[in-house]
Amino acid sequence: MSPAKKPKAEKAQKKSARAVEPEEETLAFEEGEPEADAPPAKADGGRDDTRAKQRVSAEDMAGRQREISVAEFFTKNRHLLGFDSPLKALLTAVKEAVDNSLDACEEAGILPEITVEIRPTASGENQNRFRMIVEDNGPGIVEAQLGKVFGQLLYGSKFHKLSQSRGQQGIGISAAGMYGQLTTGKPVRIVSKTGKKKPAIELEIVLDTARNRPDIVSRAEFAWEAEHGTRVEIEMEAKYQKGMRSVDMYLKQTAIANPHLTLHYVDPGGEKVDYERSTKQLPKAVVEIKPHPHGVELGRLIQMLQTTSCRSLSGFLQEEFSRVGSKVAHDIIDAAGRGLSEKSYPTRIAREEASALHEAIQKTKISSPSTDCIAPIGEELVLAGLKKEIEADFYTAITRPAAVYRGNPFQIEVGIAYGKPGGVGLELNEEGRITKRKKDSEASEALVADADEPIRLLRYANRVPLLYQQAGCAITKALIQTNWRSYGLQQPKGSIPIGACAVMVHIASVWVPFTSESKEAIANYPEIQKELRLGLMEAGRRLGTYIRKGQRLRKEFDKRSYIEKYIPHIGIALQEILDLSVPERDGTVKTLEDVLHKSRKF
Amino acid sequence: MSPAKKPKAEKAQKKSARAVEPEEETLAFEEGEPEADAPPAKADGGRDDTRAKQRVSAEDMAGRQREISVAEFFTKNRHLLGFDSPLKALLTAVKEAVDNSLDACEEAGILPEITVEIRPTASGENQNRFRMIVEDNGPGIVEAQLGKVFGQLLYGSKFHKLSQSRGQQGIGISAAGMYGQLTTGKPVRIVSKTGKKKPAIELEIVLDTARNRPDIVSRAEFAWEAEHGTRVEIEMEAKYQKGMRSVDMYLKQTAIANPHLTLHYVDPGGEKVDYERSTKQLPKAVVEIKPHPHGVELGRLIQMLQTTSCRSLSGFLQEEFSRVGSKVAHDIIDAAGRGLSEKSYPTRIAREEASALHEAIQKTKISSPSTDCIAPIGEELVLAGLKKEIEADFYTAITRPAAVYRGNPFQIEVGIAYGKPGGVGLELNEEGRITKRKKDSEASEALVADADEPIRLLRYANRVPLLYQQAGCAITKALIQTNWRSYGLQQPKGSIPIGACAVMVHIASVWVPFTSESKEAIANYPEIQKELRLGLMEAGRRLGTYIRKGQRLRKEFDKRSYIEKYIPHIGIALQEILDLSVPERDGTVKTLEDVLHKSRKF
Asked: 0.90 cut: is pTM over it?
């Protein structure tokens, strides 16, 4: 408590006093201890005399310093986690739950089948209340972990691991539960079953924000028809609405990027939408890798040297890093000099030597990190996903080779769907004739813009659609910096191009650098920016070829339909002049048409 | 450690095994305990037989779950804190240190005088290394707190307090030190002195990231000429560069918003820049307030009820919230019903009753939170700041009345500087004549755009300039949504307006909702958006009046200079016709000029 001079301070200060944490012993020196009841201000000598305005002294301030629990931090900053508005909160919660389900299924080698339900639970005057239910057929979670997985921030299995997954922070689903609890006071309900012969465990969990720990408020066992799986229910204040950034759109886009997923969705109106999987092939299993030497900062290297269990420097380099064999280790140590040898004892290496070692690592040629830690969707499945959910005239997909930022492998994929059926939509049929393509449309309208609107950008990170913060995302930046005019689209200066087009961009990485914990936009690392641009340009060139062909086709089509219109008349004229029989006339017309088409082949 | 089936996993898993934290006892149920050496995969029954691809079981996964230290989290996500590039890292570190210095000085009632130095410390081949030194004349920090303040994330005095300050999270300066340590392996050096007769304490601190705790590596006492103050030195990998988002620009903008600050800056080239304070008046002292009832979510209300030391509901409402007296408390309890009375014992109130209480609070009319917890700059000082650092033809400033989002008071200020000296720059002199204003320019060029460029937007939060993430900021959004064409500027659709203009926007609040921990952009709360728009419109209208007047003046000026050119000739003509003497002619010319000017007064 700080009883300092604060004349206008509101009545009681009891609350802050109560919350002050007991002082830790680690830093107790002989003087200057913060005292809860330190005498105010004047304690420290002459300095006050010179100023009229003395307000608070160093001692007063010390009394107010305290630790902040990470859960308190995120409760106050819930917009960092994507819970700033009731509309976004619903989406974020669904996203975190579905991400976890997909990760668990893939890791366990199970073809995911997920049910999402948004159930209105209006009570009293508050109509903005929903229960979100997400159930999967994943491997389940063992009971000892359930509490922490759903009721503790910064707890998880994916953070310390270098391999691609949707989750990475150990924050998301606990944060969703925390938001539900904050807005409705109700605990999170979890049901999980890890095997056929095991009971389903049902827990109700509350997160103790001051300590960032789960409190289990009820526990039951029961029989569940499912063999294994997890079900999470969170009641929350939220708002449901259709549109580009809705739960519906998120699920649709999830289906595009996860063709192995079967998804059932019950919206608040009780309507059911089913997305059936289009492939039974799971994404390839990803392998965990060690850090790549080129991505390790000096400070981290020093820390690794201090904590390694390796007993030689050469062993350390080979054991703790990827892509370092005995030859590379030898080269590094050689380049470092400073008396370092392959047998140097890692924990005894001082800062200066470590610094030399770090410089030597940067100078040594080391092969790029292995890419079996990331699993891109693949060109074929990107195309399949786009075709399944977006109706368009032209599709293309690119998977770039893997690249590296800060030692983390990543891979960019770009897909394009262009043209509204009924738009430019012309095509050559088998006989080489140009025909208008016919399609019934409207279904995918939302995903392909109109010809005079900005194109739709579908952003993905590790197969998860990103619906918010488009303006602040590296993907958007790369899209804007690409010159789409040279590919046949309109593009106002410094803006998203205009056209009946959807561009999908996917970044797969062992560690996606998001701009905030809510994982809505990609941070602007130069290496990522470069790969994004290359991917967009490659796909753009293909689009350009198609559009130019389309424009040529359009012109051809106009010319030909004009000529074709008159060919029968020419036939009749020829018949009269040359006195042809009817079959002769028709044969001549046919020949004329064939010659016409042949002479204009592409 | 997870010895599961991972055929291609890289050599050793030792590292992750070492880092597994001891299991907590809280959740030990009778089965399903995660075992470090659990038998892989096949453990759970029939399910595996049906699938070829079994990869990992629930038990395997459980073995990998663990806690993530907040310092580890931010090391991996250092872009969240503003340390994603060497260029930005330098700025972020300076910003965190200067923010802390200013906060401390103001809280202690000391007129701040701060020295910032960026010293190149290139070593070996690495040229991108600098030592940042920030020294203030603040109250100092008592020794017992020094370690934690500079070496522990989420530790501080400002988080739990509802009153305006630059810092709020208890992350910034420790994160800067952590970044320095990560990139150079060197500790942070701190010197602090809390009073004339006390010794200066010098500490070198390293942050233990796995535990998020400071390790003090050296300690010394010495005599320091300063009476009191703090000096922090951090060596880091960084890049120095001039420009819109440089340390130089940050300091210049800081001087604009903090006219009471004297700042000395030594750049890496050794050049000195001094910003002298233009006022000796400190910002008004801010008062800490209690949460406002309308901003408290149900979950938080329940938590407050459970932990209060008040023994009656009425007392609880009056003690724990601002703006609740006995009358309002009575009204709330009355409206809640459900058997609640003024004497109900807070800790015994169940969820359903708390929910009714929460609804009743929302329905009860309660005065807006007191605004003495925030200290806007004020129209006068905004103008003074703009005029001191930006040379322009027209200035205006608006301080909006305080408003509230999520129970947090905030206040918006908008300042505009328009016109490059030498541009439209026309003015009426005392005699009512229009003259061109003369000024020597170039100094403030960077802060006022050219007439054909997007205007410069200077964003501030609690007097701190925000230099990054402009695109993702609520201020930018509000600027774009304002119709500047009606105020005389050009504005491409959906873009920042064009013109020789700088717009400064300041949000002062007890809790600024930033979009990330690096505090670079404001989150888009609707209440804040609305106030921003109102402030921009009000300032915009004034600008519009000036610009229109300028345009009229320009026309007048052209006309008059034309007429004035001929008045002497008319004089000579009249002299000849009417046979006037020279004094008579000059008198007539003067009269004609006066009549002309009078007839066109504004």
From this structure: no
